[in-house]
Design a protein that fits this description.
With 507 residues, the chain is of the alpha/beta class. 40% of the residues lie in helices and 11% in strands. It is elongated.
């Protein structure tokens, strides 16, 4: 039996590889199986069951614990196999906590050895990750012509649909045309492209016409990362932060008309070029949320909001400027970012038009652009390709504010260089929302809490399943309503800059 004393080093060295080979001859310990089963949520358990269907054709297990136990007793679950399953469900935290392995070590092992899970099943789970509820509902409806009415209900998942299609031989590792056609019908061209790339791979061309339930191992080691690492083609989307259609949506938002839902949410017939991919937001926690409040009026509500969103909140109150810099540097160097899907920072302070102060105003303060610089890809590699969200409320002296007629909205687009297909630019994936207001708002008795942060908290708390850009457009509208009723010194001025390459939903 495997015991915790025998765990390997986590650096993917030759010693680790030899240990792993030795452990393949041992039965998985009940303690390890129990820990894994306890840590997975229901969606992750469903995914794991689906991934294992090719190796469990003769196994009937009511839960993950029994499934893993049976596979272990049958000699089908080595430590490497369990590491692969945790890797496939993106539970890199459990790889470290339970198996003492890091993500890179598992990838190195999988690159050199046959896989427990076929690339076909990896493809299906990746499609599942990128579908929203309305997409699944549309697919189920389209499949009625092939499966029949009532065969699968509206509350079922995409993986349930795939299983039903497999039973009727409508989908298989070498039979994906129908699914590809349906994804095109619901305007998910990004996912259709995933299938096309899979079909062009060596694995698909060599795939035998076998039943999905057949037990086979993928021997094409070089294809491992084709379906797990970020598709480099998406990097071509990065140009000036947003595309033309996103800018149009934001401009329409200030007209106070109803904000249109995204392509994936609406399910309506829209131009193909409006479709876009979504950032993965499934890690637990979603990421670290750093809250630095040098004013002392907002931290409790913000803490509650970001905790409810799934972030690991790290609050700091009344920091000096040197301490602000220190905590930001520490957050940028945090190695746990590699296991999380995003990062958020909320900063509330006094400042000038271009900088923030701590509670001990020193000279000209800490420049705002230096904050963003700390988290760029070349200095913060663990967050490359992941959304980095900044919400700043800065109270400045009156002469630093510019009067704005109409909606208090300014949208700035930093010019970004063209990026090659294998590179993600260091300035990519930022969402930078800066609100400035007159410092006199803090001198009132009682002082007024930030209207901007109140609106932000409400939107994120109540409508988290909608795209963040859409929520921000509506926040603009609410700020506009406020500004139309108050004198200049009580107005809020919002600046949005972003270099997001995909749709972002904090859910």
């Amino acid at each position: 039996m495997i015991t915790t004393a025998s765990w390997p080093p986590a650096d993917g060295t030759r010693a680790w590889t030899l240990w792993l080979l030795a452990m393949t001859l041992h039965e998985m310990s009940a303690q390890v199986i129990h820990q894994v089963e306890e840590a997975l949520d229901e969606d992750e358990k469903e995914t794991l069951f689906f991934l294992c269907r090719d190796v469990t054709a003769d196994v009937v297990a009511p839960n993950v614990r029994d499934l893993l136990d049976v596979l272990s007793k049958q000699g089908k679950l080595s430590v490497g196999d369990l590491a692969e399953l945790l890797y496939r469900v993106k539970r890199f935290d459990l790889l470290q906590q339970i198996l003492k392995m890091d993500k890179a070590a598992v990838e190195a092992h999988l690159f050199r050895h046959p896989h427990l899970v076929s690339d076909y099943r990896v493809l299906m789970t990746e499609i599942d990750e990128n579908l929203i509820k309305s997409d699944v509902s549309s697919l189920i409806f389209l499949m009625r012509d092939y499966i029949g009415r009532g065969k699968i209900t509206k509350d079922k998942s995409f993986l349930d649909l795939v299983i039903e299609m497999e039973k009727l031989k409508l989908v298989a590792p070498d039979q994906l045309d129908l699914l590809e056609k349906c994804l095109e019908t619901i305007h998910r061209i990004d996912l259709k492209t995933k299938i096309q790339k899979y079909k062009q791979s060596d694995l698909f061309s060599a795939c035998p016409a076998q039943g999905v339930g057949a037990n086979y191992t993928n021997g094409v080691h070089a294809s491992l990362l084709n379906l797990t690492l970020k598709d480099p083609s998406c990097n071509l989307r990065l140009q000036n932060g947003r595309n033309k259609d996103q800018r149009l949506v934001e401009q329409l938002g200030i007209q106070r008309g109803p904000v249109k839902t995204s392509v994936q949410e609406s399910g309506a017939s829209v131009p193909q070029h409006l479709t876009e991919e979504r950032y993965r937001m499934r890690s637990k926690p979603l990421g670290i949320c750093l809250i630095i409040d040098c004013i002392g009026t907002n931290i409790e509500g913000l803490h509650k909001t970001f905790t409810s969103l799934g972030f690991k909140v790290q609050p700091f109150l009344y920091l000096r400027e040197s301490d602000i810099i220190s905590e930001l540097h520490k957050a940028a160097r945090e190695p746990k970012h590699q296991d999380y899907d995003s990062f958020a920072c909320v900063l509330v302070s006094r400042g000038s038009a271009q900088s923030v102060f701590g509670v001990d105003k020193i000279e000209s303060g800490f420049p705002l652009h230096h904050i963003r610089r700390m988290f760029m890809g070349d200095l913060c590699p663990y967050l490359v390709g992941k959304p980095k969200l900044f919400f700043l409320q800065n109270y400045v002296v009156s002469e630093s504010l510019l009067e704005v007629d109409g909606p208090a909205v300014k949208t700035s687009e930093p010019k970004m260089p063209q990026v090659g297909p294998s590179t993600i630019h260091c300035e990519a994936d930022f969402f930078w929302s800066l609100c400035t207001a007159d410092v006199s708002l803090l001198e009132q008795v009682p002082s007024s809490p930030s209207l901007y942060l109140q609106f932000l908290s409400q939107k994120l708390g109540q409508e988290r399943k909608r795209p963040l850009l859409d929520l921000h457009v509506e926040l603009y509208s609410k700020v506009c309503d406020w500004n139309s009723q108050v004198p200049a010194k009580k107005k809020y001025h919002v600046l949005l800059q972003h270099t997001l390459r995909k749709q972002l939903i904090l859910s």
